[in-house]
What we know:
Elements: H1 2-19, H2 23-27, E1 45-47, E2 70-72, H3 231-247, E3 250-262, E4 267-278, E5 282-293, E6 298-312, E7 315-325, E8 331-342, E9 346-355, E10 360-368, E11 370-371, E12 376-387, E13 399-411, E14 417-428, H4 430-438, E15 444-455
Antiparallel strand pairs: 1-2, 3-4, 3-15, 4-5, 5-6, 6-7, 7-8, 8-9, 9-10, 10-12, 11-12, 12-13, 13-14, 14-15
Amino acid sequence: xxxxxxxxxxxxxxxxxxxxxxxxxQSHAGHAMPAPxxxxxxxxxxxxxxxxxxASRIGTAGAPTCPTGAVPARLTAGAHDMSTMxxxxxxxxxxxHDMSTxxxxxxxxxxxxxxHDMSTMxxxxxxPAxxxxxxxHDMSTMxxxxxxxxxxxHDMSTMxxxxQAPAAxxxxxxHDMSTMxxxxxDHDMSGMAMPPDVPTxxxxxxxxxxxxxxxxxxxGPTNAADRLFDPAEMAAxxxxxxxxxxxxxxxxxxxxxxxxNFADGEEGxxxxxxxxxxxxxxxxxWKSEGEGxxxxxxxxxxxxxxxxxxxxxxxxxQTGLRQTYRPEGDRTDxxxxxxxxxxxxxxxxAAAFLSNKGELTARxxxxxxxxxxxxxxxxxxxxxxxxxxxxxxxxxGSGLSSLQVGARLRYEFRKEFAPYVGVEWTKxxxxxxxxxxxxxxxxxxxxxxxxxxxxx
Length: 456
């Protein structure tokens, strides 16, 4: 029974083939079957799987929107896609190629050894059972570039390095170059032009002797231009030339301190001024300084008249007379000292005084202008007084008599006018302090000073 059921379909298939109709067709004999309806596709779309279908154009610019089951048609050789105009286009590919994976790394075409086990490629494999055309060949260097064959016997140790070309034979080979650039010993250089023997601060004693001037150079008038121009005008011109080249005469007055000072319940005043007239070498100086109380008389005042001569570019030697006025007694002193500008712009003034009573004293001052800005200037100042002996009449002890230290801050509205404010500390030492204590005076005080510095 089972055998009959199994072979029944075979008989039915054979009968259908003989009659040209199937059993299914016979079962519907007499029924009208409508023809299948095909939906029209938009222009540029073809059925998916068609020979002209190009699925890679789906969603690209210029590609038509196709319904389900359809894709854009592949562009023909005559049709131009303007969607990528102005862009760099890839090279055309042969028709019929699938472009959906263009730009991606494609697997290589099946090699002629497809199906072979390549896991040990590059290694020396034992010969297979079936004879291979490459049997016995060494495959260990497969895929490497073989080195070019080199002639036998060549040294390859420096291959790939830049070799220096052998130096050409010098035309001076074998010549003695040890004295090159030197003057031969037998050459006479006495007639060679030499620099003139002009005396300078760095005179070279090895210069040749100066040739005397010819006899005609000293003949004729001293000023030959007087023969062509008015002698009076030429004399005035020469005087002006001398003045502009170091013979200028200048006059100045400098009031370094003109101030009021305030201490413990005391108010006073002080001044320090000086001036000069003359040239760069010789000058006449005058100096004056002193102090006093607003409600009393002058405590001390002095006036100096000095002759000054420059002995260094920035220092002058000074000598003259000083007249001092004190309530205790007046003095007239012989003055010898120096004044100038020390290195680093320190202004120094030091002098020794020998009075008409044989009393020898000395005083030294130093000050420095430290600029904060072009207008704000701080001036530290120090003064020390020394004495060779005790002078009880003037309340001056021997040795270091007193020390005065101060600082003034000034503002220069103009170079010639600068108000200032400062502080000054004074201390007496030795027998000078003993004299002050005996008079019930303080040996140390601090003062606030306010004043003006000016010059013209």
